[in-house]
Amino acid sequence: MKINGVSYRTIWLAADGAGVEIIDQTRLPHEFVVITLRSSAEAEAAIREMWVRGAPLIGAAAAYGLALAAREDASDAGLAAAYQRLHATRPTAINLKWALDEMIAALTPLPVGERVAAAYARAAAICDADVAQNAALGEAGCAIIAALWEKKKAAGAERINLLTHCNAGWLATVDWGTALAPVYKAVEAGIPIHVWVDETRPRNQGASLTARELNWHGVPHTVIADNTGGHLMQHGMVDLVIVGTDRTTRDGDVCNKIGTYLKALAAKDNGVPFYVALPSPTIDWTIADGVREIPIEQRSTREQTHITGKAADGTLVEVQLSPDGSPAVNYGFDVTPARLITGLITERGVCPASREGLLGLFPERG
Ligand SMILES: CSC[C@H]1O[C@H](OP(=O)(O)O)[C@H](O)[C@@H]1O
Fold first, then answer.
1. Is 25 in the pocket of ligand 1 (CB under 6 A)?
2. Candidate list 239, 246, 253, 334, residue with the active-site label
3. How far is it, in rounded angstroms, from Cα 129 to Cα 238?
4. What is the maximum span of the chain, computed from C-alpha positions, in angstroms?
5. CATH number of the domain residue 143 falls in
6. pLDDT by residue for the chain (366 residues), tens digit each?
7. What job does the chain carry out (predicted)?
8. Any ligand 1 atom below 6 A from CB of 168
9. pTM of the entire structure?
10. Same domain for 198 and 331?
11. Are residues 243 and 150 in the same domain?
């Protein structure tokens, strides 16, 4: 995507062909800082501390993390140890395990001396595939928006109002994004679209990252408190919802940022179409029941009790929100059952949130 006219991905190979460069998303929206990862330990930290985040980008970062690990020790044991360290960074996004499995499958058949070059090549291919998949799902989602716009335009509407939760934009992937890819494609198609941006407590990925993206891209948007969406839906101010996902089961249950389930309930109650956008590496074909089988990350309660923002003098400051001694709990994700989902938007098209729907698009998984 473009930032002030300059094209960026979220992760790329450094000019020296060894380091891996990322945008430090903990510094956004107020500071744009690029970090060069030079070790597998730094790649682990980047994922664990959410310098990079978002399921597809976590996968891409893990892939390059294993390439950095291969430079350190390309033996079977060395790669296996790095796999475990990277896999342990965050538990929910299945893209992490998917990417690590892809890397191991590509490297272990090779002589040790060929593994570093192959690792960087496979990591680059994983990134390129993510970009292509998200562009394709963006087109599929844009068709949904376009059809809805035709109806709304005929009824006299001036724009399409879309609500999204958290950040499932290009900052959550290598490029294009998932939930926001259809928005960018709709903007390219000249459809007047406005985005309601859930701030998404506690880390505020919506307010700090989705708003940042849409601001850079010139897409009309409004940041709202997480609890506002239901009210907007009751008053006909939301035409559709598109969110991302960190892991979707073979039966269509969707794990996404905490609060997604509540938006889906409100959408169902108000007859608002609720779509989930995902590239296929986000599908966990090994599980069916998302509520019971998907591990939900719990993060530091400091993310809940404190917040960081820009002070009047432009410096970034952290302040405490709740009183000393008041306990907090910080669940990172929840699961939206398939019954609440209108459709899944994938790189192969749109399908119902069901085993039959997914197998219709991915028959090789049958
Ligand atoms: C396209 S994946 C985006 C997905 O990832 C976010 O989680 P986190 O920021 O904690 O990595 C959130 O669940 C988004 O929907």
1. no
2. 246
3. 32
4. 65
5. 3.40.50.10470
6. 889 888 999 999 999 999 999 999 999 999 999 999 999 999 999 999 999 999 999 999 999 999 999 999 999 999 999 999 999 999 999 999 999 999 999 999 999 999 999 999 999 999 999 999 999 999 999 999 999 999 999 999 999 999 999 999 999 999 999 999 999 999 999 999 999 999 999 999 999 999 999 999 999 999 999 999 999 999 999 999 999 999 999 999 999 999 999 999 999 999 999 999 999 999 999 999 999 999 999 999 999 999 999 999 999 999 999 999 999 999 999 999 999 999 999 999 999 999 999 999 999 999
7. Catalyzes the interconversion of methylthioribose-1-phosphate (MTR-1-P) into methylthioribulose-1-phosphate (MTRu-1-P).
8. yes
9. 0.98
10. yes
11. yes
**134 assigned binding-site residue:** no
Q: Confirm or reject: Cβ of 350 under 6 Å from ligand 1.
A: no
What is the domain-level CATH number for residue 117? 1.20.120.420
Same domain, 42 and 96: yes
Q: 215: annotated binding-site residue?
A: no
Q: Is the ipTM of this complex over 0.85?
A: yes
Domain that holds residue 353: 138-365
Q: Give the residue ranges of DSSP H helices in the chain.
A: 40-48, 55-72, 76-87, 94-107, 115-154, 181-188, 205, 211-217, 229-234, 260-269, 290-293, 302-305, 355-361
Q: What is the number of domains present in the chain?
A: 2
Catalytic residue list contains 289: no
State yes or no: 257 annotated in a binding site.
Answer: yes
Terminal-residue alpha carbon distance, the chain:
35
Point out the domain boundary residue: 85, 110, 128.
128
Q: With a 6 A CB cut-off, is 242 part of the ligand 1 pocket?
A: no
Helix (H, G, I), strand (E, B) or coil at 181: helix
